[in-house]
Each structure stands twice: as structure tokens, then as C-alpha cells.
Records
---
Amino acid sequence: MEYLSIINKFSKNYNYSDELSALFVYSLTNNQELIIPQRLKKIYKQNFIKNMHIISELKKIYKICENMNIRQPILLKGTSYIFKFYNDNLGCRNLNDIDLLIYDKEHYFQLCELLKSNGYIFSSDYPETLTKNNIKIDLHIELINSARIAARREFVNISDWQKHIIKINDFYFLDDNLDFLYSLLHSAIHHSFSEFKWLTDAYLFIFLKKLAPQNLKKIAEINNILDLLRFCLTYLNLIFELPQEYQDTFNLPYKKNVCKYILKKTNKKNCQYLINFLFANNLQKIRILMNLLFPNKTILNLKYPQKNILAQYIQHYKEIIKSVI
């Protein structure tokens, strides 16, 4: 099973959904017929059924928005990628929730009321998360969520994202260039490359959409995220060999030793603090440190809802230490 060599570069601990992602990208890049092994057929079927249900729910939400004269939200993350890459193989992509990008706070309140009137409830401490039965919807007011680390908004602020909205087959998406940038940035600064499926999504943009690296570089320069993008591409290149044009355009590798360090860690999630700190300027570093060392009570309750305040701080500091050890 040669496709396992891809995912083994990422981690020795992977699940069947990750394996399906590796199999899918391997079959595409090697121009081979996609054949699902028997041991993966059950998870493939589960993913397929759930994704069909999610697509049906999205159509209902869009129709209700249209009827109520509410702007239809933009599909984000896996909710977007199942249409862009996995439409003919829905079972190869696991979706945990529906991610919707919204325009502003007024749009947020409109969608919340719409969803609540159609059976959704707020079921967590996160004000942007609603659920109905086994479907969870996350509403994103900003591309890069700064709720936990406020300085993120300062060093990753793509303010003109509304200029990059396109409509395909009745749904709204970010255009491929910005969608690709978002997939990598989100994977890095929110989750420190801990999810294999998001790295697969990012690579599929390069392989299937044939994005011109010069256009990506221009967008990155405009938004002052070029070094962060170079870092993300260096990490991606450790798993999927990128076209030489990308390596030349972005002068890769960049901070390769840090990328290798993160790649080797079993628990990559804790490295988000390291990545955030690495790409902040001096003033932003101070703000990040203040956020990390003295998080407010709301953040602690969101992260550790079952613990008292002392236990919350202890667990929080353990995570910080793990990110650099």
C-alpha cells in the first residue's frame, strides 16, 4: 500500500479517515483508479451518508435565506472542499461540522435567528456554534478566529476577503487562491498542522486547481503574510513534494528546522502558540504573551469547562510548556 508512505510522513498515529485522504490524493497524483480497501469501506460509507445529509441541509439553509431576503453565507473549510475536490468521492472526506463565513455581526444575528427557528440550538459555550441532531454549524465572523489569541487579528488580517467571493452551482465560495491561503493559514496558526485532511486539501488546490504561485505571492505580499505562507509551504513540502515553480517562487525552504520539529511531535496541536509567536512582531509578541500568560476567565471556561480556576490555569500552562518542549 504505497499511499501509506504519504501519511507516514505526517504521523505514525492516524485514523481511517486520514487514510482515506491519503488514498484519495495518491490515486489522483498517480493517475490510478480509486479503489477503496475493504477495511476502509465502512468509514467511507459513513462519510458519504453524512456528507449527503450536510449537502441537503446546506440547500435548505440557502433556500430559507433566499426566501427571507438574507444574504447567503460563504462555504468554508471542508464544507467548501467537498464540492471543489470530493464531489465524485464524497466518502473520502470526513466533515465534523458545517463552516459558514458570514459578512458582519448583523448577518450573524440574522443567521442565528434563522437557524434557531429551524431547530438549531446553541449547544456549547461558543456563541458561534449551533447544533441540530448530529449536525453542527460554526459561524465565522472573521477568516482567522482571534477569540483565544487576540493578536492573531493583527498579524493575519485579510481585510479584503469579500472581494474574493464567487458563486458556483448556487453556493458561494472563496475563490481558489484565497481558499487555498486560508486552508494553509488556518491549519497552521489555529491547529499547528495537526489535521492531515487539511494538508491534503491544501495540496489538492495546487495539484488540481493549478494555482499560479505568482498570484498567491502577490496576495500574500498585499496582506503582509508572505513569510507565514513560505513557512506553511515548507511544511507542506515535507509531506507532498511541491512543484519546482512553487519552491523557486517562494524561495523554499523557510524555517525548515522548525517545520521538522513540529512534524516530529506526536501532539502537534500545542505548537500553535509557537507558530503564533514566531510570526508576530515585537509588539504583537507582547500581546500574545499577555494573552497566553493571563487569559481571561471566559477563555479558560471555554477551554476547560469542567475545571475550577486553579486547575484551568495549571492545564493552560501545561499546554504552553508542551508547545516548546
---
Amino acid sequence: MSINISSYVREISVIVIGIAIALFGDDLMQQYEREKISTELKVNLLEEVNEIEKYITNRENVFVNDKQILMALINESIDIDSLVKIKLDKSIYDMSIFGYRGFQPPNAFYKSLVNDGKIRYLESINLKKELDLMHNVNSYYILENVKLEIVAGQKLKDFFETNHPKIIFNSLDNSIGVNKYVYDLCLLIQGNDRIKAILVGKISQMEDKIIFLKKYKESLNKIKGSLITSLDKEEV
């Protein structure tokens, strides 16, 4: 009887050990698959971050240039020749005054991570928080200021079309040189408090936009550093 019990115990032990080994092996396989997916996601995410970096450099330049032009136009002590040297293209002045600079960084891969639920494969909580801060918070405030710029630009366009249509015509007339166009534009702006007031408001919105662009860029740098560090460790 004792022999049968011992044999039974041994059989049960063998089965239990076999199940444990199988489960352990399955866990290892699942862990390997998770790590493999995580690595692939981080590589693709880093590629998108590099593309965003190029886009942000461009946006930073045009945002600052637009603000510089408007500040020069309302500066009563500005030298007209110095103003013309800022940009030699009439369309640049028109864009700064009447238009706006959009903000659409490449983020298709990040959106797919969120929509497909694959963002869960990124182990770092800090990385996910920074991604959310960059794409959903800082980006939101940049876009909100862009909307305000659009409203200010439309106000200016409506005012010029109604009260000073010649400026609009001259901006489209190739026979009118940039020097004369900017000279007339500057004299008109500095002699009209209503135009200056709208421009001051637009400049304020540009400044806020630039502030949040800097915050966006700070998050971008943190994300890039985190991804590079993580991928380097995985290669070791």
C-alpha cells in the first residue's frame, strides 16, 4: 500500500513539475514577445521623434520671425531700411500680419500606439507621461493660440480691405517693390492706433505660442533621451 502511495506521489510530482516548467517557459516566451514588441515600438517612435525635431526647428524659426516683423512694424523708432532687411519678400510681411502659421507635427505613429492600445508595451511610466504632455497638453495650447492668431489676422484683413485697400492691392502688385510696400505699410500702422492695438494682441498670442512650443521642445528632448537610453541598454 505504501509503495502505491509513493508511486502516486511521484507521478503527481512529475506532473506538477512538468506543468510548472511549461508555465515558466510560457511566461518566458510571453516576456520575450513583450520585450520584442516594446523594442520595435521604441525604434519606430524614435524615428517619428526625429521627424518631429526637424519640424519643430522649422516652426521655431518662422514663429520667431513673424513676431520679430510685427514688433518692428509697431516700433516707432525703427529705421525703415532696417525693417526691410528683416525680410525681402512682401508675402512674408503679409503672412505675419494677415495670416498664421499652423502647427501639425508628424504624430501618426504615436496616435496609432494610443488607438491600438500598444502604448501599454512601453515600460516607462515617465516616458508615457511625457508623450502625453507633449502631444496632448503642450500641443493643445499651441493650437489654441494659433486659433486666436487667425481671428486677429482676419480682423486686420477686414480692416485693411475696408479702410486701406491700396495696401492689399500693392501686396499683390509685382510692380510695387518691397521697399515701397514696407515703407507705406509701416507709416500706416504707426499712424493708426486701432491697427497697432490688434497687432499688439497678435504679438501677445505669438509669444504664448512660442512659450508652449519651447515646452513642447523640452518634452521632445526628454522623450528622445529616454528612448535612446532605453534602446542602448537593450543592445548591451
---
Amino acid sequence: MKQKIFSFTLVLFVIMSVQMFAQNTVGINVQNGMKSVVEITYNTAIATAFPEISQKQPAEWAAYDAMFKKKIAEGAYPPAISTMSAEVIDVQQVPNGIMFVSSAEAGKYKTQCSVVDDTFYLYRQSKPSVAEFGKNISLINFMGVVSYPLTMKTDDELQTVIDQMFFPKASKEWKDKVKVKTKTETTIYSDSDGRPKYAMATDYYKEVLVANKLTVSTVVTTVTSRKCIGEEQITIGDKTYTAKKIAVRIEITPNTTITKDYGSFITGLTAKIIENRAKKSIANIADINTSEGFEWFIPELCSVVKTEMFDIFGNPTWSVKAVSIQ
């Protein structure tokens, strides 16, 4: 279970990194042959801590956080730093904007953006994406449109972004052997005078197979709230730009629906215990996946060129920044 939680978190990070990478290649005047390089920093301590903390109660989180902060200070978990480069290989004009394809080490990605009424819109998907996890589980991902007013001012609240991931219903059917009473025989015992003294009942059972069915469906909603908190100078290559600094808060909420039909009482009782544990773990994961950070948007480039994110304890989790845009 811990490994699955970690793997799922890592997949989410990769998706977010790819989208950020695509976003950094965006310029409303983007052209074929445009190249960009981004630097990605991922805090390996958070990856190590997440599976363990997600199984603990909130009252225990502070102790774990202190332990990992100490290890980070001692250099036990150096951050993983990598670069990702891309090149625009196709550009098409669409109403009020463009649709382009960028090629990177991991594959090709299609992105659409536009400017309407002095607001830049980034469409992170041309269609919902589907990822396979295991034999019978697939993930459908819907990513919301992100907007950036080109004339935003300090203290402006930006439009909330909502993303949703749907795990289609996964069902499991199986049979259990249970004992079913078939009949009861009563024997009456009498005293020496023939009068009934007491009776004894004997129950007879046989083993039969009963059907059980469990269906699980999950929707994970990510709500990103944003607010402009000021301006900063950002240098990319040999040029300096004025960037809008935006405070970001990301809240991830899973909602799982479980439908069950248990023919066996023991199976149902055991499953209920497991279900309660799972719900508690999911609630913990939701709290841990609440994070805050900052992004820097340059209106001149119609692009977010830097993002820094932190966990609920204030530890840096990951960051992405543009190194060059040519």
C-alpha cells in the first residue's frame, strides 16, 4: 500500500512537471524551432516521508516533520535536480491564439493558448488524458483552463483552477464457503415414569458457496486558488523581465464511493474494518496533499517561468524554473 501511494504521488508530480514544462514554452508569438530549457528540483525527503506520514494520525505528523527536517539539515536527503529541454515542432493558428506541439525527451505534447480581453488562457489539454495503473485500473484526467490577466495588480484574486481525476469503477467478485443450517432435530428425554424431562435440539449444517461483490469508484478533485502578491525581476538568459508573483494554494480532495454485496457475514465484517482504515488513510492523504507555493508570471512572455511549492509543514517539495527560452 505504501509503495502504491508513493508511485501515485510520483506520477502526479511527473504530470505537473510536464505541464509546467509545456507552459514555459508558451509565448503568444511562439514559432517553430523555439527552444526552452527548464530546471526541475524535487525534494527526495518528501518522497520518502509521504508513505510513512500518510499512515499516521495528524497528531503524529509534527514529530515526523521534525525528524525529516533534521535529516535534511544533515544532508541525508539531497534534492534531485534535473533539466528538461523542448523544441516547438508545429504551430497552428486558432481563434484568438495558437495551438502548438512541443517535443521533449519524454514525448510530444500539444498545448493551446489564447489572449482574450487582456487575459491569457492556457488550455493544458486538448482532450482528457488516460493513464493505466495495473491490469484493471485506469485514470482519466481532466485539467482545467488556467487564466492570467495581463494587467493583474497586487492583491488581485485570480480565477480558481479545478482539475479532476476519475478512476472508473473497479469491481471484484468472489465466492466464500459458508455453513448453512439445513435442519434442526429435537430429541425428548423422559423419566422412568415416561414423563418428558428435558429436550435437546441438534442443528445440521452443510457448506455452500455464496457470492460477494465489491465495486469502488474514486474522483480526486484538485482546487488551485491564486492571488497576485507583488512584482519581482526575473532574469532568463541575458534578459531581465518584470514578473508577477502569485501565491498558490493547492487542495486535493479524494472522494471514494464503495458499493458492496456480501453473501458472507464474516467477509462483510472484515471488509468493513478494512474500509474504515482505508477511509482514514485517504483523509490523511488529502490533508498531506494540501500545499502552498508561488509562481512567477511574465506578461511580456505570456508565461509562468518559475514555480516553487511547499508541503503543509513548509518544507520545499518541488520547483520548476526556466533556464532559457530561445
